[in-house]
Amino acid sequence: MNKQFRFVLAGGASALLLGTALVGAQEWKPDRPINLIVPWGAGGSTDQVTRVTAPILAEALGVDVVVVNQPGASGAIGTQEVLNAPRDGYTWTANAIANNATYSVTGLLPDTDIDDWHIYLSVANVPVVSVPPGSEFTDFGQLLEAFKTRGPEITVATAGITSSGGTAIAALSDSADGFDYNMITYDGGGPAAIATASGEAMVTTQLAVEQTELIRGGRLVPLAVLSDQPLVLEGVDPIPPITDWLPEMELAPDYFGIFIPTGVPPEVVATVDKIWAEQVVNSEALKNYAETFGAVFAPSFGAEARANAMPVVILEACSSVARGEAVNDPSTIGIDCETRTEAAAQ
Asked: What pLDDT was estimated at residue 197?
């Protein structure tokens, strides 16, 4: 029997987790800008939230935090750039944590897993199934039937197979006993959403944050949100949950954040932990972004962030096996897909 992951976020207690970890820790005072590589194109979900978070960090650190878009290979190219950089604290990345944790399973980066990163989560995102105005599909049930009967004709715009949109359409197919589709990929979720609004594709399954303005402007029509609760956006009718049509679909929060490679000096981690606990957790700018664009404000870091991330990591890793897309078995990164649990600490 499949276990259903409900879309419930763990409570935030990151500030309390600092405990004695920061007692006596040397404060890090960077003396040059920090490169923050977003391995996706501009305008997508990772780019959006990173550009809200970077100024908070820059102000606290007293140096520029420079966001650099380096898309390609479903985020693997930019991520590898960060892994190759000196571990001096001056090169970070941003992404959905499920990507960084499962690049090994997909074979894009065979030698990395979740424990190669210090994790700083900011928001959780949900995919939305949308179509252009005038589409033949006026509700998800009609679209689902079309996928089942003429799937290869249905074009779906995403940011790539391992992107949130790519994994969303694959999960929909899995939950509906398998259907085909024609995926068209773009350098980011934003471009994929815009392409759908322009009629280049019939459907997009990218994240709500990448579609909100297009939905509000009438350029995209949302049919369903991949959640067990409706998505409420100001000025838009509630978007119905996917469980109205696929009640057994497995769901897990898709967390996004900033990640620093392990091996950096301990004062770097201690300092960023403190900033996350004191500034990011209380950021009105980040809260406003989440509320405006249909994300969930959910900052966490350290052990709490890792624990929050594991449900979506396990779901994505094991789903790739079920679809025959896994290059490496999830057991190599400590995930047991028979029990849908983390088998062992890495």
From this structure: 98
Q: 130 CB contacts (<8 Å, ≥6 apart)?
A: 193, 196, 203, 204, 211, 214, 215, 220, 221, 222, 223
- Average pLDDT value for residue range 12-16: 45
Is residue 144 over pLDDT 50? Answer: yes
- CB of 250 within 8 A of CB of 5? yes
Write the CATH number for 231.
3.40.190.10
CA distance 55 to 222: 32
Tokens 């800008």 locate to 33
Question: Among 237, 14, 230, 10, which Cα is nearest to 118's?
Answer: 14
The answer to whether residue 296 scores a pLDDT higher than 70 is yes
CA separation for the pair 236, 321 (Å, rounded): 37
Task: List, in order, residues 6 or more apart from 111 with CB less than 8 Å away.
Answer: 104
As a whole number of angstroms, the distance between CA 97 and CA 52 comes to 18
Catalogue the E-assigned strands of the chain: 34-38, 65-69, 91-96, 117-125, 128-131, 155-158, 182-185, 203-204, 221-225, 254-261, 296-301, 335-336, 341-342
- Partners of 183 in beta bridges: 156
Rounded to 5 degrees, φ, ψ at 101 are -80, -25
Residue type, 203: V
Q: What is the CATH number of the domain that holds 327?
A: 3.40.190.150
Does residue 119 share a domain with residue 144?
no
CA distance 225 to 227: 6
Structure-block tokens of residue 254? 């898709």
